[in-house]
């Protein structure tokens, strides 16, 4: 059977749980909307997707992804404008990235119609779950898992593609305190750093636990060969404003091609700001700090949006960023992006998909 999402079978909940949503207290990833989308892949093809009530999955304990980590995911957001019209931000870009991850992880491509149209229909059904406050959204989590019931090690032949959604407020409640990591490694050339594979996050848990005990929020990873060049923060790409230039590590095998990263670069360049995508060493950041040229530092990601960095610790050096009231670049681009997402400014880039 070929996938035709136009006639997705929909099994609606008997009673919505929407009264569990407190718009004044939305915590990231705690509450899930009423429905989810599931499509299974078997015998070399995707079967007809279904939208069903959000609920537990029933899986054999021998399901292969639980053992060998053939699992990938994406993060997308839906927003509502002042008139209640809902949109999804750049889902086609997440679809393309999901398939880059799928390819590297030996998983099947997800058809565009299944990913984008399936998501659109799911979000439309649960549009009451999209919060309306500034900085809030419906976080959309598409993911794919290998579902062979087999504990021998081999690339799987069966997969499930699932989309769940969750109302979201700010991911970080305050500017983050960063530890520059030069012992553990997140990614290395030839590895899977550029993918959104579950294992990239699994491998970061222990180093993250260690730095949390020391009072830091997140790790800034350095490259796996020399521990010299900054790469990304656990949940975000990273940007530094040095003098009047914005610098972010260039993409490659070890850096996730962030959709928010790309949006920020595009908007800043259109505004006439110089954005350099290039290797950036921790020594260059330290040097800029000592000369008083380090003006702003921020992370970007779908979940985190644009998050200020308050402080970076590298060995014994505490790099305290200037007072936030003097930050211009990150706040301008954050406002600009929010204006586009919430429909206050025209979308001139084709980033918005209406429901
Ligand atoms: C996202 O920004 O969407 C992410 O996937 C980061 C994190 C929540 C894992």
Total tally of structural domains = 2
CATH architecture classification name of the largest domain: Alpha-Beta Barrel
Name the overall outline. Answer: globular
Which value, in Å, is the CA radius of gyration? Answer: 21 Å
Helical percentage: 10-25%
From the N-terminal CA to the C-terminal CA, the straight-line distance is 26 Å
Give the integer mean of the pLDDT values. Answer: 95
- Which class best fits the helix and strand makeup? alpha+beta
Taking pLDDT < 50 over at least 5 consecutive residues as the criterion, the unreliable ranges are none
Give the count of helical stretches.
8
CATH fold field value of the largest domain: D-amino Acid Aminotransferase, Chain A, domain 2
Cofactors, ions, other ligands: 2-OXO-4-methylpentanoic acid
Helix/strand order: EEEEHEEEHHEEEHHEEEEHEHEEEHE
The percentage of residues in β strands lies in 25-35%
CATH homology superfamily of the largest domain: D-amino Acid Aminotransferase, subunit A, domain 2
The count of DSSP E runs of length 2 or more, i.e. the number of strands, is 19
The largest sheet is:
10 strands, mixed
Quick rundown:
With 355 residues, this protein is α+β, with helices and mostly antiparallel strands.
What can you see in these coordinates?
This protein is an alpha+beta fold. The protein has 2 domains: about 10-170, D-amino Acid Aminotransferase, Chain A, domain 1, CATH 3.30.470.10; about 175-340, D-amino Acid Aminotransferase, Chain A, domain 2, CATH 3.20.10.10. Helix content is about 25%, strand content about 30%. It is built from 8 helices and 19 strands. The chain has helices spanning about 65-70, 90-105, 110-125, 200, 205-215, 260-270, 280-290, 330-340; strands spanning about 10, 35-40, 45, 50-55, 70-75, 75-80, 85-90, 135-145, 160-170, 175-180, 220, 230-235, 235-240, 245-250, 275, 295-300, 305-315, 315-320, 350-355. Strands 1, 2, 3, 4, 5, 6, 7, 8, 9 and 19 form a 10-stranded mixed beta sheet that branches. Strands 10, 11, 12, 13, 14, 15, 16, 17 and 18 form a 9-stranded mixed beta sheet that branches. A hairpin with a 2-residue loop joins strand 17 (about 305-315) and strand 18 (about 315-320). Helix 6 crosses helix 8. The longest helix has 14 residues, at about 90-105. The chain is globular and about 60 Å long. The model has no long low-confidence stretch (mean pLDDT about 95). It binds 2-OXO-4-methylpentanoic acid. The site of 2-OXO-4-methylpentanoic acid has 7 residues, from loops.
């Amino acid at each position: 059977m070929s996938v035709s999402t136009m006639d997705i079978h929909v099994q609606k909940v008997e009673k919505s749980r929407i009264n569990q949503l407190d718009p004044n207290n939305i915590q990231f990833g705690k509450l899930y909307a009423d429905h989810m989308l599931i499509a299974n892949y078997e015998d070399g093809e995707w079967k007809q997707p279904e939208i069903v009530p959000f609920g537990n999955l029933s899986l054999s304990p021998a399901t292969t992804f639980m053992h060998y980590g053939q699992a990938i995911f994406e993060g997308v957001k839906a927003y509502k404008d002042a008139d209640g019209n809902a949109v999804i931000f750049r889902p086609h870009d997440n679809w393309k990235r999901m398939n880059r991850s799928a390819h590297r992880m030996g998983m099947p491509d997800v058809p565009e119609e299944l990913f984008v149209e399936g998501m659109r229909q799911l979000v439309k059904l649960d549009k009451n779950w999209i919060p309306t406050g500034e900085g809030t959204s419906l976080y959309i989590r598409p993911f794919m898992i290998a579902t062979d019931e087999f504990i021998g090690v081999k690339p799987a032949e069966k997969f499930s593609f699932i989309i769940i959604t969750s109302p979201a407020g700010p991911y970080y409640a305050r500017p983050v305190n960063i530890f520059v990591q030069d012992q553990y490694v997140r990614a290395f050339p030839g590895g899977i750093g550029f993918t959104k594979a579950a294992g990239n996050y699994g491998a970061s848990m222990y180093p993250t636990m260690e730095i949390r005990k020391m009072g830091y929020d997140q790790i800034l990873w350095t490259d796996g060969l020399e521990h010299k060049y900054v790469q990304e923060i656990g949940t975000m790409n990273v940007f530094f404003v040095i003098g009047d230039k914005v610098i972010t590590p260039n993409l490659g095998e070890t850096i996730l091609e962030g959709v928010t990263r790309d949006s920020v670069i595009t908007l800043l360049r259109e505004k006439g700001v110089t954005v350099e995508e290039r290797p950036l060493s921790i020594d260059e950041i330290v040097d800029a700090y000592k000369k008083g040229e380090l003006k702003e530092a921020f992370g970007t990601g779908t979940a985190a949006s644009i998050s200020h960095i308050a402080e970076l610790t590298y060995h014994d050096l505490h790099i305290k960023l200037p007072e936030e009231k003097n930050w211009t670049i990150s706040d301008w681009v954050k406002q600009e992006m929010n204006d586009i997402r919430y429909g206050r400014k025209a979308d001139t880039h084709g980033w918005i998909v209406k429901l």
